[in-house]
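Ticket #4471: structure output looks truncated?

Reporter: J.K.
Steps to reproduce: submitted the chain below (113 residues) through the standard prediction queue, then opened the result file.
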Amino acid sequence: MEYFFLGDSELVTAFRLVGIDGVPVSGADDAGAAFRRITESYDSISGAVLPGVETCHVLIVTEEVADWLGDSLIDWQLKGHYPLIVEVPGIMGRLPGRKTLMDTIREAIGVHV
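Returned output as attached by the reporter:
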């Protein structure tokens, strides 16, 4: 399975060290443009494809990038197409108010051990 990363330049470098390609984004416009290039290339495999994207099955984004992408990210996730989206904390840690996966599961089942 192939992975691709969108986030700040420090984390892009870190992910490259473990063999995962990525593109640094520094704002909502950069993030939106990169996300469109990834998803459009996956839909139609046409034109300007980012390196490493043509085989991407999992797109890793920081929470900050996910916030920048907003509804377009949610719309893509609801389609159920590849690449699948995984959110990770950014270089500064979790964003305030974000729930962890465990918090979401505990809310869903109503059990806290």
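Triage note (M.O.): checked the attachment and the full token line is present. The chain has a mean pLDDT of 79.
Status: closed, working as intended.
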